[in-house]
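Lecture notes, continued. The same structure-token format from the folding unit now serves as the input rather than the output. Read the line below as a description of shape only.
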């Protein structure tokens, strides 16, 4: 009787024990806490602002109360979202790391995740502002 090890099976079959898709929480943190994720979110902020800029009215809402806009700003402010993401990355991230005293093994990746999550909120606010901005000209119903 021959006892095969996993290595023997891998060598004989050419199939190796590789993880295709990780579903654990640490992998999730590594994916969403990466520089690539932050770059993607920031570039999306810039692209969405650029593509929607010409369609926006002169003033866009930035604050709402009971379904109505209460504060308006110049439409150039749509480009503040990528700037905010950059500020979050380079100014707020070190503060998060220090203030939460995350000096354990996963401290850096958790800080990255929180930074990216905050930038995702900024992206969501930008999209919300664009979607709930009244059009330049009234829409024709019929």
């Amino acid at each position: 009787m021959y006892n095969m090890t996993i290595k023997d099976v891998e060598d004989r079959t050419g199939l190796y024990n590789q993880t295709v898709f990780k579903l654990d929480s640490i992998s999730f943190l590594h994916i969403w806490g990466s520089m690539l994720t932050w770059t993607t979110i920031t570039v999306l902020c810039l692209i969405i602002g650029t593509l929607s800029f010409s369609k926006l009215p002169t003033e866009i809402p930035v604050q709402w109360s009971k379904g109505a806009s209460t504060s308006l700003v110049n439409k150039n402010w749509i480009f503040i979202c990528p700037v905010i993401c950059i500020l979050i990355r380079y100014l707020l991230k070190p503060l998060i790391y220090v203030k939460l005293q995350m000096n354990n093994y996963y401290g850096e990746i958790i800080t990255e995740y929180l930074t990216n999550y905050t930038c995702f909120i900024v992206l969501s606010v930008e999209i919300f502002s664009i979607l709930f901005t009244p059009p330049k000209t009234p829409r024709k119903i019929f």
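Point for the exam: Residues 53 and 75 are 7 Å apart (CA to CA).
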